[in-house]
Write a structure and sequence with these properties.
Layout: H1 8-19, H2 24-37, E1 44-48, H3 54-61, E2 66-71, H4 74-83, E3 89-93, E4 106-112, H5 121-131, E5 132-143, H6 145-148, E6 157-159, E7 165-168, E8 177-183, E9 186-192, H7 195-205, E10 207-213, H8 219-224, E11 237-244
Helix pairs in contact: 5-7
Amino acid sequence: MGAIYDDGAFFDNYYKLRQDKDNYNDNIEQPIMRALIGEVRGLSALDIGCGYGNMCAWLVSEGADEVLGIDNSSRMIDFAREHNRDAKIRYKVTDAETIDNTLGSFDLVVSSLALHYIKDLDRLFSEVCGLCRDHGRLVFSMEHPVFTSCLSTDDLWEYDADGKMSVYRLDHYAVEGVRHVEWLGKTITKYHRKTATIMNSLIRAGFEIKEVIEPSPTEHDIEHNERMRQELHRPAYLIISAEKR
């Protein structure tokens, strides 16, 4: 997935999306991620799929001793090095599919909305567990399986007489595997897995699941951004905190 961000037009479209003050990443996903991450003072951290480096910069601002951000998009890494640089942050162009113990060892591993692009999640979780120090933590978000399940993104919603979304059509949830979706003018490849598959993969890798969050908007969220009302029908994200056993 990361290499597609090396396409200039796609990168620019994604950047514009993230600059929208009502984007879901900043208003739903990131606050929960940061709350689950909690205290980081003195820790060594790895950010898988670091993108612009915003999380890396936040970790350092919260007191992390050192942070390594990896992404397989050289354009993303170049942007991160320019806009989120710090003496305590290193950035590296690396595909998450190929990470191994040569990256080092860490107290904390984080990943924001990258793991639904990973083909071999069992391998990744196993490698990440090996990178974690004793009782090291993994905190990650990904698109929720009810969101990734559909084989087609056409006609996902039913509408009431007033034209408001009333039903989200869950489709092919039990059929795991590749999904091809159109996004920002490109065909994107994702991998759908059931929630149980993701959790069992973590457990097999050597993690203990600490907390699972499926975000729902508050009334305040909806008053601020009416578009969030659709999140009452299905969660967009699955966010998990786990600890190395």
